[in-house]
Design goal:
This protein is mostly helical and 264 residues long. It has one domain: Ribonucleotide Reductase, subunit A, CATH 1.10.620.20. Helices cover 71% and strands 0% of the residues. The protein is built from 11 helices and no strands. Helix 3 runs antiparallel to helix 4, helix 4 packs antiparallel against helix 7 and helix 6 runs antiparallel to helix 7. The protein is globular, with a radius of gyration of 19 Å. The structure holds fe (ii) ion (2 copies). One fe (ii) ion binds next to helix 4 and helix 7.
Length: 264
């Protein structure tokens, strides 16, 4: 069980996150996406495949939520965060789905079959403790942000104003999620630096993005998964900025890694 002081600090972080979200970051699928510009959407298969792929990853939300909530007994700060986070993530899948349908890039039948293929699979949380899941979430949200930033740039270059705006709105949410998890991780570091660094080293070494391998016909999607993540981009775009945000260096990670057993 997490200490009372830590739980109270989590709650304060949640309130800061929530206030900012309510005041500056709320958007809705119906009014805030330029659907009046659908006639400008180019018929580019790779953009549609990427939108469908990210929609599919977001559609594992029930599994993600269940995993988070099951680890948080008695911790209301993080439970309220998970509820709010789930609402925001739900919009990500819905916005991408609406884009695919309204632009005519996918039919209702195709989306239903895709949804059925997704829901036939089940995502399992990769870590078993709340603190390791916080580390994982901080890295995963930033990786997701980088992916959406890349996709937004591709959509912009293809002159697709609708998809570019969908990705901008989603990416802004992902960055806010990442910052929240980084702050929670900072609180963990303050409370138990050695243990938290060990968790960080362990998760960094075993990190994988969720659900890509669960999507149907995955070979087709390989190029989507790796867009923006060639040649060590995980290190430069995700790991080093995350360490920097936590006031850590690679040396801190190496020292902690030396104390982590090799097998998970
Ligand atoms: Fe998302
Ligand atoms: Fe997110």
């Amino acid at each position: 069980m997490t200490s009372i002081a830590l739980r109270e600090a989590f709650h304060r972080e949640f309130m800061t996150f929530f206030e900012r979200a309510e005041r500056t970051r709320r958007w809705n699928v119906f009014d805030d996406i330029p659907w009046d510009r659908l006639d400008e959407v180019p018929a580019r298969d790779e953009l549609a495949l990427a939108a469908e792929t990210f929609c599919g990853i977001e559609m594992f939300l029930p599994d993600y939520l269940q995993a988070h909530l099951s680890l948080l007994a008695g911790d209301y700060g993080q439970a309220w965060f998970s509820a709010n986070w789930g609402y925001e993530e739900a919009k990500h899948a819905l916005a991408l789905r609406e884009y695919l349908l309204r632009s005519g890039r996918r039919t209702e039948t195709q989306m239903r079959e895709f949804g059925d293929a997704v829901t036939a699979r089940h995502w399992e949380p990769p870590y078993r403790t709340p603190r390791q899941m916080v580390v994982y979430s901080a890295l995963q949200e930033l990786t997701t942000f980088v992916s959406y930033r890349e996709q937004r740039e591709l959509a912009r270059r293809a002159h697709d104003p609708v998809l570019a705006e969908v990705y901008r709105l989603i990416g802004r949410d992902e960055m806010a999620h990442c910052r929240f998890y980084q702050r929670i991780l900072g609180l963990h570091l303050d409370e138990d630096r050695t243990g938290t660094l060990k968790d960080l080293a362990h998760v960094v070494r075993t990190f994988r993005m969720p659900a890509h391998e669960l999507l149907p016909d995955r070979e087709d999607r390989e190029s989507v998964r790796t867009t923006g993540f060639g040649n060590g981009a995980f290190i430069t775009e995700v790991l080093l900025p995350s360490l920097g945000a936590l006031g850590l260096t690679r040396h801190d990670l190496y020292s902690a890694a030396a104390t982590v057993p090799a097998a998970r």
